[in-house]
């Protein structure tokens, strides 16, 4: 039996810790390098983190231009409550985005259901996108 790599164990522990919080501070970068922190809901996606946002949001545009991000725990107002970690963000297709909606409903309960419903009524199913965040080693 092989022993798990300590770095992998540490990364997984960070994922569990970050995904157990209500909010994740995702810092994306403008083309000029300016950091833009945004608090978002977060779910666990295996060995990664998942977030969900409007497809036409500025954070999606910034991630398309530059996939490296910083992530860490925060409160509802985006005030950091712990260490921030380097990561890579990937914009997902409709199938994985739908899976993230399910995870959000499960984690956030009635508030999640109402938020997702409001979003669907305003934007339609294709108006939002899932973003998979993989922590760096």
TrEMBL record:
Query: Which molecular-function annotations from GO does this UniProt entry contain?
Result: coenzyme F420 binding; oxidoreductase activity, acting on the CH-CH group of donors
Identify one Gene Ontology CC term for this UniProt entry.
cytosol
The protein depicted here goes by the name PPOX class F420-dependent oxidoreductase
Q: Which UniProt keywords apply?
A: Oxidoreductase
The UniProt entry, under InterPro entries, shows: F420H2_bilvrd_red/Heme_oxyg, PPOX_F420-dep_Rv2061_put, Split_barrel_FMN-bd
**Which NCBIfam families does the protein's record reference?**
Rv2061_F420 (TIGR03666)
Protein EC:
1.-.-.-
């Amino acid at each position: 039996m092989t022993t798990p790599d300590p770095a992998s164990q540490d990364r997984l522990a960070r994922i569990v810790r970050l995904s157990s919080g209500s909010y994740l501070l995702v810092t994306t970068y403008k083309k000029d390098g300016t950091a833009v922190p945004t608090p978002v809901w977060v779910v666990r996606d295996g060995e990664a983190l998942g977030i969900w946002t409007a497809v036409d949001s500025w954070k999606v545009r910034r991630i398309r231009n530059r996939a490296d991000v910083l992530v860490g725990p925060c409160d509802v107002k985006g005030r950091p409550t712990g260490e921030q970690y380097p990561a890579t963000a990937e914009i997902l297709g409709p199938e994985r985005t739908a899976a993230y909606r399910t995870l959000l409903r499960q984690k956030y309960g009635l508030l999640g259901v109402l938020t997702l419903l409001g979003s669907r009524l305003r934007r339609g199913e294709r108006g939002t996108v899932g973003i998979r965040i993989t922590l760096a080693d």
